[in-house]
Amino acid sequence: MVWLKMALFLGAFLILTGLGVWWSLTGADIAPGLWGEFFDLPIPTLLALVTLCVSIYLAEIWRYRSYAAAFGIELSALGAFEAAVANFLFAWITPGAALGAPASVYMLSRRGISWESGALISFGKSMTGAAFLLLAAFILMLCGYGPELTPALQFLFLWSGFGILSFFAGPIIGALWPESTMRFVRRAEANLLALSWIQRGPGAGLVQRAVLSFEEAVLRLSLLRKIGWRLWPHLLGAQLAYFLSFAGIAMILLEARGAAAPLESGALSIIFLAFTYVAPTPGGAGLSEAAAGTFFGALLSPANCLWVVVFFRSLTLYGQIVFGMLYLLIVGGIREIVTRPNKDGPSKKDDRNAKEISRS
């Protein structure tokens, strides 16, 4: 059953990706040998791309360790690396990145990090990181750097992005005033549960689960208020290094195909990366490839737009999926992650700092 689920996850990702590439190919005049031109890039360019691919992992290790330090948890570089590898694999191939955070929490537990502490690290990193990226993308679009989106993509990107950003912003803002936020949310919950049409159906359970999730998010993020200001530059620097590593790869590929506007290339790369976050398919599969011309058509021909997107995603998402599969097949963990281990799983070892966080 485990390997059947993995086959379904990977198969869906590959099929959606193939459909997206096919869609872009229908409007592109692909010259013979276009794909092989990647390997004809100058050696310094190839080295720069490899360096940025490695820097994504280094920045992700930095993100994990920075958030661990913010919560007072000791996390080794190897533990952060394994959490990053598992997170990349399962976040990209599961709908809504559903298994990304559980995968990293499980891998952290194998390094002696308690489940609660692992959830704090993964949750804080992911929520603030996604909010950071989406906010940056919206600011760039307001400054006039956004692509000419079709009505369908406008609805998908703007409304989905705004909804997701609001979803993240609510707990982040609430964490600034947790006590007042909790009182407000509980009053709202009581008012909703008093409505007869909510009481009759499954609405009551949905409201209660939503409130519980929101309260947990606020409580976890409120712990970040207790850290010293000296750690905030590390948190923000790690997020910036992570997303700029992705954007740098796209910028180099765009420049290699003749894009002559580095500032616009960088802005569009950030916006495109944000689009892959809000796209409803796993890792933006299919939609990202199909939208290649939409995002980069102002800079390049349709064929070159597709070339850039395919190799950008090959160096990032596709490569991270392949590497993650190989690594976890060697060190283990796929079965436990896919079967969603419970919180009393293999690691029951709590360090002293993790116990203090659990009590706070």
**Structure classification:** mainly alpha
The number of distinct helices, counting runs of at least 4 residues, comes to: 16
Largest sheet: none
N-to-C SSE string, H for helix and E for strand: HHHHHHHHHHHHHHHH
Query: Averaged pLDDT, please?
Result: 84
Measured as a percent range, the helix fraction is over 70%
Poorly predicted regions are 342-360
User: What is the 3D shape?
Assistant: globular
Backbone CA Rg: 21 Å
> Using DSSP, what is the number of strands?
0
Terminal Cα separation, in Å? 40 Å
> What percentage of the residues does DSSP assign to strands (E)?
under 5%
What does this structure look like?
This protein has 360 residues and is mainly α. The protein has a domain at 41-141 and 229-359. The protein has 16 helices and no strands. It has helices spanning 2-25, 43-70, 77-93, 100-109, 115-142, 151-174, 178-193, 196-200, 203-222, 232-256, 262-278, 287-290, 292-296, 302-331, 334-338, 352-359. Helix 2 (43-70) crosses helix 5 (115-142) and helix 6 (151-174) crosses helix 11 (262-278).
